[in-house]
Amino acid sequence: MSLQRMSRRCNMGWTRGMRWATIPLGRQLRDLPHRNWRRPMLRELMDSLARGRWGFEWRYWRRKTPWDTNITPPEVMAFVGEHPPGRALDLGCGTGTNAITLALHGWEVTAVDFAPRAIRAARRKARAAGVEIDFRVADVTDMRILSGPYDYALDIGCLLALKGEGRIKYASGLARLVGPAGWYMLYAWLPRHWRGASWGISPQEVESLMGSQFSKIRQVIGEERGHPSAWYWFQRR
Ligand SMILES: C[S@@+](CC[C@H](N)C(=O)[O-])C[C@H]1O[C@@H](n2cnc3c(N)ncnc32)[C@H](O)[C@@H]1O
């Protein structure tokens, strides 16, 4: 190769490198080749941020919490009407509506949520209602701080936010905490997309998570604002 051609090559490389370095990072990422691997990675990242602790904390902070209705569902009211009070555990209790209902019906309640803002609101609501509840800022995928046995565990909308390994840890913690013949009631969306992330769990997966330690007593498939969801009633073997 002639000296002239070599120098032209080097110059081109240098110019390209310099030009690349002056392009803003956002554009560099956008222009990277192999978009096919970047898109799913970003989607995965956004998805886990939305479902993580600070994603929920952010929603409580912005009051973008459509689930926070201050109404205890009829399924829970029916359970309370049919069972004598004992020890209850509310998993992903949010601002404590259902924990407070249980406490008002004589249950001794522990309620767990990983969003500090939700637990602060729950404590305020419990004080106003005149009930004592053991509220904990904790992750349902690591419930070693709790000790059973509980007679009733309730999950409205929490398991559906977990993924893979988290679900397995949740199920094993739950099996440790719920006493023999104790109840576990779950409300969960079936798999769907919501606000840029994937949520929900299929009845088959619920069964395979819980089936070895709990007997499924009942399951009702319904819908919430046009999307399928389900209630499950399990009893500890
Ligand atoms: C859809 S909201 C339902 C709240 C409440 N159960 C209700 O019915 O109002 C789900 C709640 O689960 C909590 N959550 C989600 N993942 C959690 C986790 N890994 N550990 C503890 N809480 C979690 C969220 O912070 C949120 O408060």
Keywords summarizing the entry:
single chain, 237 residues, alpha/beta, Rossmann fold, 2 domains, seven-stranded mixed sheet, 9 helices, 9 strands, 45% helix, 26% strand, globular, binds S-adenosylmethionine
Sum this structure up briefly.
With 237 residues, the protein is of the alpha/beta class. 45% of the residues lie in helices and 26% in strands.
Average pLDDT, to the nearest integer?
88
From the spread of the alpha carbons, the general shape counts as globular
Helix percentage range: 40-55%
Number of strand segments: 9
**How much β-strand is present in the residues?**
25-35%
Largest sheet: 7 strands, mixed
CATH-derived topology of the largest domain: Rossmann fold
CATH superfamily of the largest domain: Vaccinia Virus protein VP39
Q: Radius of gyration from the CA trace?
A: 24 Å
Low-confidence segments: 6-17
Which molecules other than protein and nucleic acid are bound?
S-adenosylmethionine
CATH class wording of the largest domain: Alpha Beta
Q: Terminal Cα separation, in Å?
A: 80 Å
Order of helices and strands: HHHHHEHEHEEHEEEHEE
- State the domain count: 2
Question: Structural class of the helices, strands and pairings?
Answer: alpha/beta
What CATH architecture label of the largest domain applies? 3-Layer(aba) Sandwich
What is the count of helical runs?
9
Structure overview:
This protein has 237 residues and is an alpha/beta fold. The chain has two domains: 44 residues, no CATH class; 163 residues, Rossmann fold, CATH 3.40.50.150. It has nine helices and nine strands. The strands form two sheets. A seven-stranded mixed beta sheet has the order 3-2-1-4-5-9-8, sandwiched between helices. A two-stranded antiparallel ribbon has the order 6-7. Strand 1, helix 6 and strand 2 form a beta-alpha-beta unit. It is globular, with a radius of gyration of 24 Å. About 5% of the residues have low confidence. The structure holds S-adenosylmethionine.
